[in-house]
Amino acid sequence: RSLDTTIAPLAGIENLFASDPMAAHDWANPQAIVAALDAHAAAAAERGSAASSRLEQLRGELAPLYAVLPKNEHGRLDNGTARYALHRHFVKTLGWSVKGLEPAGASWVRSMQVTADVKQVTKYIAPAFLQDMAIARMGDGKGLDLHWLTLMAATIRHLAHGEIMEYLYSVVRAMEHPVSGKWSAEQVDEIVSGFLLVYAFGADLQASRRTDLLRERRYLETHHQGWNDLRAYTNSLLAATTPAPDDFHSTLRFVEDWTGMYGAWQDRDCKLAASELAAMPGQAWGRVPMASVKPLEKPGRRALFAESEEEMESFGFLERSAEGNAKLVIPNYILSLGMCLTTAGVHTVCCRNPCDAFLERAEAAAGAPEATPETIMNALGAGAGNAEELSVLAAQGGRGVVALHGRGFAEWLHRAYPLECPVPSERNHTSPRTPEEWMTDPGGEVSDTQELIDEVANVLARYTTLGSGGGHAPAGEADGPEEDAGDMVHTTVAAKPAAPVRRSPVLGAVQLFSMVALALAAGRSMLLPAIARARARASNGEKPPRAPGATAWRTHPDAASCEARAQKHRRHSGTGLAAA
Q1: Distance CA 161, CA 94 (A)
Q2: Does residue 433 surpass a pLDDT of 90?
Q3: Mind listing the pLDDT tens digit for each residue in 442-487?
Q4: How far is CA 235 from the centre of its chain?
């Protein structure tokens, strides 16, 4: 997967053996991004509407954080600070680490551009593209205010909402169940399982149908204990849901809630890793000698501490003494990409940063980006840390206050809470852990964005992929077809080399904008007309649309040859998987 990539559609089980099973889902439509942003801006202007009320509520959630973040000379947020604000908001409210909010996600901006002919962009540059559109609409280039920060957050939520609905609809049609009407408990189970296959394991609905998904599910039941644990967790949530989901609308509400609770399931690995590291021999001040760190594998859990020493050092959670002795920094490891689970949606699920709780207490007490040592110590309570060090830090600026989001305070927090607060890194654009790292300017190196994409893909592969067969299951499990270069699906270039001209606006979104704007102006979700279309398709016996993340714009080959390749996949897998 890269900024300009080639993706082969893989049916059912074969996708589990791809090097990056989620590759087909990590794309977004820039026209939809612009349309949603403009629709929310229009809705905000209609005082008294339901959509405007929801935006006001969201604005109220963001306002306390906005008030305490550092501002530029115009009293607004710089680009990096705005991304950090959105990251804090989504982690706190939904447990989401939105793809591309990291500094590396914006590193393409200075050297590449999204022009009108670009139909798909990788989700890892989508937030920076959204931010550019918001700044362009503000028109003065002075940074983002609370109003436009709110519109950006609403747009991200809106896109996630629509994407979840599209995945669910595609699963329902692939499973050959009716979109309208009531569903039995067995049908709900099949549909929810299919949604998990897509959202958590990257099942490619572009090439998969009912038999493929059922075989993939049975294969995971016997070959991936993590799947069984995830299903058990999901079943417990289903059993606790009243009334039980029994149609499209109620199941949509359930899977949307599930995406916000997926982080709770992931958090058990975070707690296990933290407790195991803290208990290792030689642990002191949040550091463990590498000689004590051994890979840990437990049934139903991912392998922990399996990275090589070189990987740990490059990812920023290894320190070396002058003598060359290596130590693992516990909070840096827990907050690394290696502890994340990616999804087919707009976000990954990562370990929550326990240091945010201490920072929030200091922010709330100060009500500003800076605070006196006395304010900080009173907010954090007795035993919080060395007050004298904090006073020295405050004196360095000459004004007697501490910048709450600066490197110095992050270092002090680590010394005060060595097991909870990370050590700042010299350069951490792809996996930021401290406020300063989030708010840094990554420069204009596109390679930073590509590094972020590659790191996340590597993380996914360690948990989701069952092999490195390049999209082929082992012999006896699935006899995959031969690869044909003429049958590959090509995405467009996600962004193009910048020319010394003004960026072209994204065009062709008029129809989509109208649909979204009308829905929002009426105080209703975009999902209602989409569901109506789904029902119409079902009643007419039409085939389901392609999965939205599976590169909707194709430059080569045409749709007919893609469908022919999908049929070839099904023919080849029909015999080899019968006993899977």
Answers
A1: 13
A2: no
A3: 665 667 777 777 777 766 666 655 544 444 454 455 443 333 333 3
A4: 24
pLDDT tens track for 62-101:
999 999 999 999 999 999 999 999 999 999 998 899 998 8
Tokens representing residue 240 in the block:
């606790």
C-alpha span between 24 and 199 (Å, rounded):
12
Q: Given a cut of 90, is residue 181 above it in pLDDT?
A: yes
Q: How many CB atoms lie within 10 A of CB 22?
A: 28
Query: What's the one-letter identity of residue 524?
Result: R
Q: Which SS3 state, helix, strand or coil, does residue 97 take?
A: strand
Residue 150 token pair? 């709110």
Nearest-angstrom CA–CA distance, 47 and 167: 33
8-state DSSP, 443: -
Task: Return the bridge partners of 329, or none.
Answer: 287
Please give the full DSSP string across 525-566, using - where no structure is assigned: -THHHHHHHHHHHHHTTPPPPPPTTS-S--SSS-HHHHHHHH
Among 397, 572, 414, 359, residue whose Cα is nearest residue 483: 572
Residue type, 30: P
Contact status, residue 516 vs residue 51, Cβ threshold 8 Å: no
Cβ-proximal residues to 9 (8 Å cutoff; 6+ apart), any chain: 24, 204, 206, 207, 489, 550, 562, 565, 566, 569
Distance, CA of 398 to CA of 60 (rounded, Å): 34
Residues 6 or more apart whose Cβ sits within 8 Å of residue 126? 28, 30, 33, 99, 100, 346
Backbone angles phi, psi at 144, to 5 degrees: -100, 135
Distance, in Å, from the CA atom of 159 to the CA atom of 354, rounded to the nearest integer, reads 28
Residue in the structure block whose two tokens are 């360095």: 396
Q: Taking the alpha carbons of 329, 331, 336, 338 in that order, is the dihedral positive or negative? A: positive
Q: Are 308 and 273 in contact (CB under 8 A)?
A: no
Measure the CA–CA gap between 155 and 512, rounded to whole angstroms: 14
pTM: 0.79
**What are the structure tokens assigned to 250, written together?**
């109620």
Q: Which of 559, 557, 544 is nearest to 165 (CA)?
A: 544
Residue 6 CB partners (closer than 8 Å, separation 6+): 488, 489, 490, 491
pLDDT at position 287: 95
CA distances 196 to 31, 216, 233, 546, Å, are: 27, 11, 12, 17
Q: Which residues does 17 contact at the CB level (< 8 Å), separation at least 6? A: 465, 466, 467, 468, 469, 470, 471, 472, 473, 474
Sign of CA dihedral 356, 357, 358, 361: positive
Contact 120, 553 (CB under 8 A): yes
Pair 437, 103: CB distance under 8 Å: yes
| Alpha carbons 553 and 541: distance in angstroms, whole number | 24
The answer to whether the beta carbons of residues 14 and 110 sit under 8 Å apart is: no
Q: Are 329 and 277 in contact (CB under 8 A)?
A: no
Residue whose C-alpha is closest to residue 63's, from 309, 363, 323, 325: 363
Confidence class of residue 251 from pLDDT cuts 50, 70 and 90?
A: very high
